[in-house]
Amino acid sequence: MTDPIRVLIADDQPLQRMGTSMFLAAQPDVAVVGEASDGGEAVRLARELLPDVVLMDVRMPNLDGIAATRLLVGHGATGRPHVLLLTTFDLDEYVLSGLEAGASGFLTKDAEPGALLSAIRAVAAGDAVIAPSATRRLLHRLAGGPGPGHPAAAESTAVAGLTAREREILVAIGEGLTNAEIADRLYLAESTVKSHVGRIFTKIGARDRVQAVIVAFRAGLVRV
């Protein structure tokens, strides 16, 4: 039997934390290891308890979820958990910053319990999750080009190091295709695509598909 997914819940609303904790505690493959009421406490507990997944509210006092995410999974962070952002709005103004900071995706707080559980399992397995209702608008924002101070040049350099096949696969990832769908499109074995994806992530410095999509759009490889 595999070990349960260790989850830390970070939310400044006690009832939200309690409800989420009770639901997750009833799942055989999930263990709630701690609860935090703000970003600072979330960072401290994550470093102490080493959860697999942090459910991170975006808007919290003292240290918000974006800053906490950056501290936990940003450049130089050690023992990095997967962060799943939770927001009241289906495209919170800070969500893109959170994804760029290293979060593995986000869901809205009104998501169905089953969707939350599926998202936790997905990010724990190294996949990425974006609320379906927000995907199109998120891609439009990405396609709008980098904001002030965004390291677009570094991203372009990373993409320049890809082979022609790797660029082709990165474009497909940016279009939202799964490994199986990419394999069908390019007439490759799915295992071959998976190997390519791993090398692409290493070359462009992406932790998961969300990060790869951001790089692809910022580099101008994919347009909405």
Give the topology, please.
Elements: E1 5-10, H1 14-25, E2 30-36, H2 39-49, E3 53-57, H3 65-73, E4 82-87, H4 95-101, E5 105-108, H5 113-124, E6 129-130, H6 132-143, H7 152-160, H8 164-174, H9 179-186, H10 190-204, H11 209-218
Parallel strand pairs: 1-2, 1-3, 3-4, 4-5, 5-6
Helix pairs in contact: 2-3, 3-4, 8-10, 8-11, 9-10
Domain Response regulatory: 6-124
Modified residues (4-aspartylphosphate): 57
Domain HTH luxR-type: 155-220
CATH architecture group name of the largest domain: 3-Layer(aba) Sandwich
The average pLDDT is: 84
Order of secondary-structure elements: EHEHEHEHEHEHHHHHH
Helix fraction? 40-55%
- The low-confidence runs, each spanning 5 or more residues with pLDDT under 50, are 146-154
Distance between the termini: 43 Å
Name the structural class. Answer: alpha/beta
**The CATH topology of the largest domain:** Rossmann fold
Modified residues (4-aspartylphosphate): 57
Domain Response regulatory: 6-124
Domain HTH luxR-type: 155-220
InterPro entries: CheY-like_superfamily, NreC/VraR/RcsB-like_REC, Sig_transdc_resp-reg_C-effctor, Sig_transdc_resp-reg_receiver, Tscrpt_reg_LuxR_C, WalR-like
